[in-house]
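Priority: medium. Attachment 1 of 2:
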């Protein structure tokens, strides 16, 4: 990848009216951002789903303005040590890449590995109580030996408590922002955010200068859910971002846990409802999370449940291991879903799965689903 590639990738995301799905559609036909931005109108009109308004944006004055803005933002990113990650880049978070509504570009400032072996999202109400703080701190203290990446939203309440508890335990923690990296919101969390940049990181899909628009927060929540192996809701009212994040996590095949709270406490009504409706597993102790996420190697030795087979990339082709990696995360998946998440053609996926089935690596299930053996 060259700076020129990144310039065009960034410019493509800065064009007005082009969402992630449209950008992916354009990239699938153009092959590269640079090619997309130089396609003639006749070619653009032939791309399915691309209408006259999008074509006008791609060939009009907005394109030149986006390229100028991209050049400016690239210089700023380089000066400030910010990574700009397009979805085709190798450092783009793998977990996030595999969700259907993933962002196509991220701005990241920090040293933490976004592809850490273990990641945990922790969310909750902004009106957190002493009980919520105690539970958050106990949770993070209880799982610190696993050295997970802690992901949350930098907001008031449970979010900032999770970040601060992670810092206290020496764990990397990433704050997913609903603003540009230069707009810390709320401003009261600036000092914590600065500490996070040193050992964890700040992450956003929004360009420099973006303020805390209310419509940005649901988008932020999907990134928290998509980055995480599982999401724990510590305290939640009957409405709010924490429940939205839990719903998103379920849709992404992530495990969801909720901390039960006192009956009648408004800040625990959301968690209790999640547990009652079987939308979340009950969290009481770190062992609950370790068992659900398969984190505790000691459990495999006691025979409480069977440990997973470890598959090494060196034993497979890159395409085979891409499918295996998806199945390790999803437990089981349909062929079409596997092909999409592994970014492989469907005919290639079918052939590879057949070969892996012969080698007793995967097993076919009813409904064209596949699972690792």
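Attachment 2 of 2:
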């Amino acid at each position: 990848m060259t700076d020129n590639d990144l310039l065009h990738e960034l410019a493509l995301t800065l064009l007005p009216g082009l969402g992630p799905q449209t950008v992916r559609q354009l990239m699938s036909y153009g092959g590269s951002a640079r090619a997309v931005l130089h396609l003639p109108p006749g070619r653009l009109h032939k791309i399915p789903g691309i209408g006259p308004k999008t074509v006008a944006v791609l060939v009009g004055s907005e394109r030149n303005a986006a390229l100028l803005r991209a050049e400016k933002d690239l210089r700023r990113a380089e000066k400030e040590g910010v990574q700009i990650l397009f979805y085709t880049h190798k450092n783009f978070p793998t977990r996030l890449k595999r969700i259907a509504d993933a962002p196509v570009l991220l701005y990241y400032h920090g040293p933490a590995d976004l592809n850490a072996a273990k990641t945990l999202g922790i969310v909750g109400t902004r009106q957190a109580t002493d009980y919520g703080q105690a539970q958050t701190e106990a949770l993070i203290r209880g799982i610190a030996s696993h050295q997970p990446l802690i992901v949350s939203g930098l907001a008031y309440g449970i979010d900032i408590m999770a970040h601060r508890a992670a810092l206290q335990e020496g764990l990397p923690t990433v704050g997913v922002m609903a603003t540009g990296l230069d707009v810390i919101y709320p401003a009261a969390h600036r000092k914590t955010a600065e500490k996070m940049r040193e050992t964890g990181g700040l992450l956003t899909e929004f360009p420099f200068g973006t303020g805390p628009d209310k419509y940005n927060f649901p988008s932020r929540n999907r990134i928290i859910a998509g980055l995480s192996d599982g999401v724990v809701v510590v305290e939640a009212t009957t409405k709010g971002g924490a429940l939205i994040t839990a719903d998103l996590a379920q849709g992404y095949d992530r495990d969801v846990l909720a901390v039960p709270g006192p009956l009648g406490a408004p800040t625990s009504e959301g968690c209790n409802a999640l547990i009652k409706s079987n939308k979340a597993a009950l969290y009481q102790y770190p062992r609950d999370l370790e068992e659900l996420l398969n984190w505790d190697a000691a459990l495999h030795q006691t025979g409480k449940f069977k440990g997973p087979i470890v598959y090494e990339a060196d034993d497979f082709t890159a395409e085979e291991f891409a499918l295996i990696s998806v199945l390790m995360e999803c437990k089981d998946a349909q062929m079409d879903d596997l092909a999409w998440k592994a970014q492989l053609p469907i005919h290639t996926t079918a052939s590879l799965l057949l070969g892996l089935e012969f080698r007793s690596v995967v097993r076919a299930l009813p409904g064209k689903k596949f699972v690792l053996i």
